[in-house]
Write a structure and sequence with these properties.
The complex is a heterodimer. By secondary structure, chain A is mainly α. Chain A folds into 2 domains: about 170 residues, Cytochrome c-like domain (Cytochrome Bc1 Complex, Chain D, domain 2, Orthogonal Bundle), CATH 1.10.760.10; about 130 residues, Cytochrome c-like domain (Cytochrome Bc1 Complex, Chain D, domain 2, Orthogonal Bundle), CATH 1.10.760. The two termini of chain A are about 20 Å apart. By secondary structure, chain B is mostly beta strands. In chain B, the strands form 2 sheets. Chain B has a 6-stranded mixed beta sheet, with no helix packed on it. In chain B, strands 2, 4, 5, 7, 8 and 11 form a 6-stranded mixed beta sheet that branches. In chain B, about 35% of the residues are buried. The chains are: A mainly alpha, B mainly beta. The interface between A and B is medium-sized, with 20 and 14 residues.
């Protein structure tokens, strides 16, 4: 966490070439934005009836997923897609399962907050209610003033989503067993995981799309099983629902496999209950030639991508009630 | 007009599907009113009985002092409440709820970990069911982050 904040600061400093005093202010502003974003992430007042925060679906212990195929919205509407994990989400160019032109995490946050397909947090048309609720809280008044002094501490949907983006960018996962062994230039500890790694980067060609270090190429692919039963809950054609281009039909973004052992169920609709199911579900020739032992080896390797520091990092957990400022 | 509406309601009632409830949920059909506590001090007046379904009011979240901070504590416009229940023997217990409030069972400051989650049978009015492995003792049942001002709750032993 410290490293990620420092990296963000270094990045902003190197880009702007600010003076010493300004640097200190920049650091304070960024820290305030991150703290504010974290507080908002866990605040159910961002939903219409106060029942749902970002963290309701993005639970830290599950690498910020929730263990359901799809999560119902605050008003009981059925969920459409499986909750994606947030490990390293700030490093991805494309966000969500099927969108290729979101400007960043701030814009993405609008989908759960006020989206209507499906309704998640249910704030469409009630955006001013967010301002009203948060403005009544003295701690938020201080945090918004510190984080958005350039906007006179404005509390509105724009500053809320920018703060959420700042927090989400700190969600760096890079200390799995795999990362530790790679840094130390040591082999993975079990034979099964070593053989799985060899398959993953070799014969099974998993890394073609699940490319290291993110274990996602951040791109879109069509790997849906042919003639699959349509999802009875929703028609979901992935990227083509956004682009309108039929060549993008049933095309979805490659999910990262970091912490995948903690993020079941899998697939954009949560239809694969286990990693075994998910691997077998890829409609690829290579999968049809893999036997059960190979798949178990690949799963053993994927298990080494679990970063326990990430899912227990206190900087990502629900903040204390007391105001930090 | 009113009489037409009454007839319609009666007809709807006659033909409404009644849920078929398994034996362990039969108590859900009979509700009795139980007070809701806003804090630990009021818990003695908000006791639930095992195997008896209760109709309870819920309180605006900012007015509640939870025994332990709920994982999902709800926003300022949500509702919740506190209750106590005595568990006389260890086993698997199910908390059955008429709405989607977050459920926590707390004993000596620690929340019991849930072991299973499910939705209720169709047309039963049961929104969620959560199972816990519990030791004997007095537990505080915390409901939080609810959307409604009332709900029904039943705690029953299943194993």
């Amino acid at each position: 966490m410290k490293h990620s904040i420092r990296a963000l600061l270094v990045l902003s400093i190197s880009l702007t070439g600010l003076s010493g005093e300004s640097l200190s202010n920049t650091s304070q502003t960024l820290n305030a934005k991150i703290e504010l974003g974290r507080r908002l992430f866990y605040d159910a007042d961002l939903s219409i009836n106060g029942t749902m925060s970002c963290a309701t679906c993005h639970e830290q212990r599950r690498s910020f997923t929730d263990g359901n195929s799809a999560h119902p919205g605050a008003l009981g509407d059925q969920g459409k897609r499986n909750v994606p994990g947030l490990a390293n989400v700030g490093l991805h160019k494309n966000l969500t399962w099927g969108h290729n032109h979101l400007s960043g995490l701030a814009e993405q946050a609008l989908a759960p907050i006020r989206g209507t397909d499906p309704i998640e947090m249910g704030m469409n048309g009630y955006e001013n209610e967010i301002t009203k609720r948060l403005s009544q809280n003295g701690c938020y008044q201080k945090l918004f003033s510190l984080a958005f002094s350039d906007q006179k501490g404005a509390i509105n949907l724009s500053t809320v989503t920018l703060a959420l983006e700042s927090f989400e960018k700190t969600l760096i996962s890079n200390n799995s067993l795999y990362d530790q062994k790679m840094r130390a230039k040591q082999p993975l500890p079990t034979k099964e995981a070593r053989e799985g790694k060899k398959l993953f980067f070799g014969g099974a060609k998993c890394n073609t799309c699940h490319s290291a270090p993110l274990f996602s190429d951040d791109d879109f692919h069509q790997i849906q099983p042919k003639n699959q039963t349509p999802n009875p809950r929703f028609k979901d054609y992935g990227l083509s629902d956004v682009t309108g281009d039929m060549k993008d039909k049933n095309v979805f973004r490659t999910p990262s496999l970091r912490n995948a052992a903690l993020t079941s169920p899998y697939w954009h609709d949560g239809s694969a209950k286990t990693l075994d199911d998910a691997i077998r579900k890829h409609d690829l020739k290579i999968n049809q030639s893999m036997n059960a032992k190979d798949i178990q080896k690949i799963i053993a390797f994927i298990n080494t991508l679990t970063d326990n520091d990430f899912v227990t990092n206190p900087n990502f957990s629900k903040p204390k009630v007391e105001c930090p400022y | 007009m009113k009489s037409v509406l009454v007839v319609l309601l009666l007809v709807t009632g006659l033909f409404a599907k009644e849920a078929v409830l398994p034996t362990e949920l039969m108590a859900w059909k009979t509700l009795s009113f139980v007070n809701t506590a806003k804090s630990a001090n009021e818990l003695s007046d908000a006791s639930l009985d095992l195997n008896k379904a209760s109709y309870v009011g819920l309180i605006n979240t900012p007015k509640i002092q939870y025994v332990t901070r709920p994982t999902n504590e709800g926003g300022t416009v949500s509702y919740g409440g506190l209750f106590q229940i005595e568990i006389k023997e260890s086993g698997t217990y199910r908390v059955i709820l008429g709405n989607a409030s977050w459920i926590e069972l707390v004993k000596e400051g620690k929340s019991a970990k849930s072991v299973a989650h499910a939705q209720g049978p169709e047309n039963s009015g049961i929104r969620k069911m959560v199972d816990y492995l519990l030791e004997s003792g007095i537990y505080t049942l915390q409901l939080s982050a609810g959307a409604d001002t009332t709900t029904a709750v039943l705690v029953t032993k299943i194993k």
